[in-house]
Design goal:
- This protein is α+β, with helices and mostly antiparallel strands and 197 residues long.
- The chain has two helices and nine strands, in the order αβββββαββββ.
């Protein structure tokens, strides 16, 4: 009887081992893997202006005008689609006798972009220019081949000429003697629309 139990126990153990081997075998398979290394890196917008002080003048009188040159460069890795000009100024000294804003008598006769042959600004006072936000490298410039151009490509530089004038209005302007105005032009660069890359 013990012998039968022993044989029966060995049979059950062998069967269990066989089932385990069969079950274990179902997890045996060929395999292979490849790893991809991916990255995302954002580009840069880097606009520079040269010179950083476009104009510094003393001893102005009504009727004086002055032309200055400056350049904007794209030193970043992304195309600059727009460069918006923000104008602000402060009256440093008005002698306490002014009835008008000195900025109303300083006129920008033109701002000319030589590379695009465009004129973002034409005849406006500093006073009025504060309410504007012209794009000095605007994209809606069309060349003779009917192609849109504009913006500032990576590594590209645009040269500008600007003329300022202390307007002589033919009237008594004595209130502006010894007046001083500090002009701040901020060039705000923006990217273009996103693309399918």
């Amino acid at each position: 009887m013990l012998n039968i139990k022993k044989k029966l126990g060995l049979s059950v153990a062998s069967a269990a081992l066989g089932i385990a081997l069969i079950g274990g075998g179902t997890f045996a398979y060929f395999s292979d893997e490849e790893v991809t290394n991916n990255s995302f890196a954002a580009g840069t917008l880097d606009l520079s202006v040269d010179p950083t002080a476009i104009i510094n003048l003393d001893n102005l009188k009504p009727g004086d005008s002055m032309v200055r040159e400056f350049s904007l460069s794209n030193d970043g890795s992304l195309e600059i689609a727009n460069v918006f000009l923000d104008t602000n100024y402060t009256i440093v000294d008005d002698g306490g006798n002014n009835t008008e804003d000195f900025g109303q008598h300083i006129q920008v006769n033109f701002l000319w972009n030589w590379d695009q042959e465009s004129e973002p600004i034409f005849e406006t006072t500093l006073y009025d220019l504060r309410e504007m936000d012209p794009d000095v490298v605007k994209r809606d410039i069309w060349d003779p081949l009917w192609e849109e151009r504009g913006g500032l490509e990576t590594g590209e530089t645009h040269d500008f000429w600007v003329q300022f004038e202390f307007i002589d209005n033919g009237e008594d302007q004595n209130m502006f003697q010894s007046d001083a105005l500090e002009l701040e032009w901020t060039f705000n660069a923006t990217q273009g629309d996103g693309e399918d890359l």
